[in-house]
Design brief:
alpha+beta, 442 residues, four-stranded antiparallel sheet, two-stranded parallel sheet, 11 helices
Length: 442
């Protein structure tokens, strides 16, 4: 499917407009310039934002990334022996009383209670906490990569829009020459009124297209600023060309997806977590054994100071079949996790095939359109010169303009689709983070 702004160029190219014919070609930019963020394309005083710069700003400012990092830290904080139930509990208590006739008593004690065996639940819980920490880290990395992908897609959309505006301006300049010549001929009786009106309609249609593209460009820049968590009206320009990798291979991408896809890694971790949760549920079939000790100090002749110690053993003989229910549900959760992992693997494999197909086809289209655009441009220039001397009618000039604009937009679309497919493939195999040296510490 063609990008929205490419379809926009085609659909608006032939729409008449009521704009006056003698207005300056920069009217569209002037109108948009009244909004908070002025549309800039080639202003030398405005910063040129590279894709690398955009990613760096997003890593620093984006709120979703900051939230993902904090959630990963919470999972890391939870991974402790104490949270798994492996360490003892130590408590201290003190009390004092004063009664009638100045009689007073006080009591203080320190107690230790330690569960030594709980049916191996503490070991399963500790392993589950380790997996949850890994899952938190992978989820944060995945969120970072998702955000970086969104930033890059938006960034290259702006480049595509900018290139489309340049082609429309070139087309508009030719339409203006045609209009001026038609008005000159009409002034001296060399052409009919319909010919002049037709030139005016086409000229205004091109101006409308330019205005709509400038509007789309402004919206795209606002969206990118939002992803970068900065003022939506921050003005900037972008690179002039779309760069892309020509060397991606299907087998390499597919093999890397199996082992490095964040989605598959997280699915595998969820399966492992479900396995440990099942072990936790089975611990209820075992007795629990622990020890306790305490030291008491008191001002009470009836209760001397000293140590005490003991052991405890407990076992639920009947709990209303709660153990069986928890175990059955744990088995089902493990089954669900396994099915989800299998489904994600299948989905990832299909996505790799789909995006790589888009990547390879549009690489071929880029080469084809690069050749076609030269022919279309030469044809338009020849048609313009022929029109100036009256060798061809206006409709043939307009047709050459359409052909050239189609060739330009087809090239922009193909380049954009190659880049989007490349970004998607790198995102699937978890390489965007590596490409930009992204870590959770950034």
């Amino acid at each position: 499917m063609l990008p929205r702004h490419i379809i926009l160029i085609f659909s608006l190219l032939f729409i008449p407009s009521m704009l006056p014919a003698q207005e300056d070609d920069s009217k569209a930019e002037t109108i948009l310039g009244d909004t908070p963020m002025k549309v800039t394309i080639d202003d030398k005083n405005v910063e040129v934002l590279s894709g690398q710069d955009a990613v760096a700003i997003a890593l620093k400012n984006n709120y979703s990334i900051q939230i993902a990092k904090d959630e990963a830290q919470i999972a890391a904080n939870n991974n402790t022996a104490g949270n798994a139930g492996m360490l003892p509990n130590i408590t201290a208590n003190a009390s004092a009383e004063k009664e009638e006739y100045n009689s007073e008593t006080w009591n203080a004690n320190v107690q230790l209670d330690w569960t030594l065996f709980d049916g191996f639940k503490m070991f399963a819980t500790r392993n589950k906490l380790r997996e949850l920490e890994k899952l938190g880290t992978e989820a944060a990395i995945s969120k970072i990569q998702d955000t970086v992908a969104l930033v890059l897609v938006q960034y290259y959309d702006i480049i595509s829009l900018t290139k489309g505006i340049e082609s429309i301006r070139e087309n508009l300049a030719i339409s203006k020459i045609r209009l001026e010549q038609a008005e000159e001929k009409y002034k001296y009786g060399g052409s009919s009124r319909p010919e002049r009106l037709s030139a005016l309609v086409d000229y205004n249609a091109d101006k409308t297209t330019l205005f709509k593209l400038l509007e789309s460009l402004q919206s795209a820049k606002i969206r990118l600023n939002n992803l970068l968590s900065r003022d939506p009206n921050t003005a900037f320009n972008v690179a002039s060309e779309i760069d892309y990798n020509h060397a991606l291979t299907y087998d390499e991408i597919r093999n890397m997806a199996v082992t490095q896809s964040p989605s598959i890694i997280m699915a595998r971790l969820n399966t492992s977590i479900a396995e440990y949760a099942l072990k936790e549920s089975k611990s209820a079939y075992y007795p629990e054994f622990g020890v306790h000790t305490a030291y008491n100090a008191t001002k009470d002749n009836q209760r001397p100071d000293g140590w005490s110690a003991g052991v405890r053993l407990s076992y639920d003989i009947f709990d209303g079949f709660e153990r069986q229910r928890l175990e059955r549900n744990a088995y089902l959760q493990l089954k669900i996790a396994g099915l989800s992992e299998a489904d994600i693997r299948k989905t990832i494999d299909a996505e790799v095939a789909d995006y790589y197909n888009t990547y390879t086809i549009n690489l071929k289209l880029v080469k084809l359109e690069e050749e076609n655009i030269d022919v279309a441009k030469e044809n338009m220039e020849v048609s313009l010169e022929s029109y100036k001397v009256g060798a061809i009618p206006a409709i043939e000039l307009r047709e050459s303009q359409r052909n050239y604009l189609n060739a330009v937009n087809n090239l922009i679309s193909a380049q954009y689709q190659v880049k989007i497919a490349e970004i998607a493939l790198l995102q699937i195999i978890g390489k965007i983070a590596l490409q930009y040296n992204i870590t959770l510490q950034q």
